[in-house]
Amino acid sequence: MATGSPNSRAAPSGEERLIVAQGERREAVIEVIRSARRRLILSVFRCDDFKVMDELDDAIRRGVQVEALMTARAKGWEEKLADLQMFLEGMGAKVRRYADPVIKYHAKYIVADEETALIASGNLTRKCFDKTCDFVLVTTAKEVVSGLQTLFESDRDSTESSLPQGLSERLIISPQQARAKFVGLMEQAGQSIAIIDRRITDPGIHNLLKAKRAAGVEVQLLDGGVVGKDMISHGRLLLVDGQTAAIGSISLDAEALDFRREVAVILDDRACVAKLSEFFHTVSRIKPEQPAEPAPYDAL
């Protein structure tokens, strides 16, 4: 599987902004919502943050067409999802539930005015803004923005999971692409692989990492329930040779790779990858202060 050379995927400097700090992720989401003047599309798995809801309401009031694609189900959220849909529709948003009867919609992205996109690993929840280890990318790279818009419209209108043609090579979409693309990225590693992921459970991925270690590649995994001092592990990060990264909602487990609609993005921008590398090496040196009751993964 060809993933392309790093230069073929790189975004020009200034097109991408990476956010890792807990105190800044909510503001990044709000900023993108506020930037919309005509149309705002977003995928929703969970949302309970009042500030985000207020911003969506303000967008609708100023004439923005807001469209939301919601998961059909989320563990423990059946009633909340129904209430959320009713609330969004009451504001004036157009809401569609993902229709595939098997595939759960777990992607997290926003597109404003066909110009700016946000790809996140976390949900629009207070926990994911304030307590988790998660990652957000804001980008104006045209191929990423148009790819997410195409994916949204295909998923909104389809009754089963399918993958539209012509999506950016930088996007990783499961269930159709994720396994091959993640394997391809890790197979390219000649020096190091670093991963933050609470659910690295796929046997094929484990075998690949074992083979890479045997070949002399340094493999570092942060796969516990806590990252750094006290951040709940939720976001997914892959770093390859300190030059290429991938962030998004896709865990390295069979469910996420093969049975969910998930979205991740490949990064080659030097500043973004350097920021992620610094973050990984910083938190990997900190001994976690384990909370008494780590939040269940599926409740975040």
Walk me through this protein's architecture.
- The protein has a single domain, classed as Endonuclease, Chain A.
- Helix content is 36%, strand content 25%.
- The protein has 10 helices and 17 strands.
- It has a 7-stranded mixed β-sheet, with helices on both faces.
- It is globular, with a radius of gyration of 18 Å.
- Mean pLDDT is 92; it is low at 1-8.
Largest sheet: 7 strands, mixed
* Overall form: globular
- Name of the level-1 CATH class: Alpha Beta
List unreliable stretches of 5+ residues: 1-8
How many structural domains?
1
Per DSSP, what share of the residues sits in E-state strands of 2 or more residues? 15-25%
Can you name the CATH architecture? 2-Layer Sandwich
Order of helices and strands: HEHEHEHEEEEHEEHEHEHEEEEEHEH
